[in-house]
Specification:
206 residues; alpha/beta; 14% strand; Ribosomal Protein L4, Chain: A; elongated; 2 domains; six-stranded mixed β-sheet; 6 strands
Length: 206
C-alpha cells in the first residue's frame, strides 16, 4: 500500500510503500489486549512488602492463663491482631511478569501498526531532524502537521536536537525504532514514523 510522505514543514515529499503484512492486517483487539497486559505487568516493580510473623521481633511467650482470664488463648505477641504484630496475607516481593510467546508479541506489534493505518492515524515523515534544540520551533512544526498527542519513531538513532526540543512538549513521545512498543503506540492519538523507521520495521519482520 502507498502512503504519503511529509516533511516537518507539512509539505509533501513523495510516497512510500508500506508492507501489507505489517501495516495491512485486520487489527485484533484480543491480541492487543494481551500484549498491553504483558507490558504493564512486566514493568511493575513488585517491591511492596509487609512483615510476616517470622519477621517480627516480639515475644513468643504465652502471656496469660489458658483458662479463667476472660480473653483469647494467645501464645504470641506477633499475631496480626496486636499493634506492632504481623500482617496476615500481606504483599510479598515478587515479579508480576506473565508469559507471552515471542511470536504473539511480534504479531501484536503488527496489529498495533495496522490499527493506526486503518484509523488513518499514521503519518510518515521524510526525517525527524532539527538544526537547533528549540522547543518553540518544533511545537510550531508539529502544530502544522496537526500533532498534539503523538508518538514519533525515528531510525536506529534519534536526532539529538529533535529529542531535546521534543522532551518539553506534553503528550509527545520520541523513540528510536528499537524502542517501539504496542502500549506506547496505542496510548497516543497519532503514530509518526520516519522513512528510516519504516525501512527498519520492514527489515525486522522479514
Amino acid at each position: 500500500m502507498k502512503a504519503d510522505v511529509q516533511t516537518l514543514q507539512a509539505k509533501k515529499a513523495g510516497t512510500v510503500d508500506l508492507s501489507e503484512e505489517i501495516f495491512g492486517l485486520e487489527p485484533r483487539e484480543d491480541i492487543l489486549h494481551r500484549m498491553v497486559r504483558y507490558q504493564l505487568a512486566k514493568r511493575q516493580a513488585g517491591t511492596h512488602k509487609t512483615k510476616a510473623r517470622g519477621e517480627i521481633s516480639r515475644t513468643g511467650a504465652k502471656f496469660g492463663r489458658q483458662k479463667g482470664g476472660g480473653r483469647a488463648r494467645h501464645g504470641s505477641r506477633r499475631a496480626g491482631i496486636f499493634v506492632g504484630g504481623a500482617k496476615a496475607f500481606g504483599p510479598r516481593v515478587r515479579s508480576h511478569a506473565i508469559d507471552l510467546p515471542k511470536k504473539v508479541r511480534a504479531l501484536a506489534l503488527k496489529h498495533a501498526l495496522s490499527s493506526k493505518v486503518k484509523a488513518e492515524e499514521l503519518i510518515v515523515l521524510d526525517s525527524a531532524d532539527a538544526k537547533e534544540p528549540k522547543t518553540k520551533d518544533l511545537r510550531g512544526a508539529l502544530a502544522r502537521l496537526g500533532l498534539d498527542n503523538a508518538l514519533i519513531v525515528d531510525g536506529t538513532e534519534v536526532n539529538e536536537n529533535f529529542a531535546r526540543a521534543a522532551r518539553n512538549i506534553v503528550n509527545i513521545d520520541v523513540l528510536p525504532v528499537q524502542g517501539i512498543n504496542v502500549y506506547d503506540i496505542l496510548r497516543r492519538n497519532k503514530l509518526v514514523l520516519t522513512k528510516a523507521a519504516v525501512e527498519a520495521l520492514e527489515a525486522r519482520f522479514k
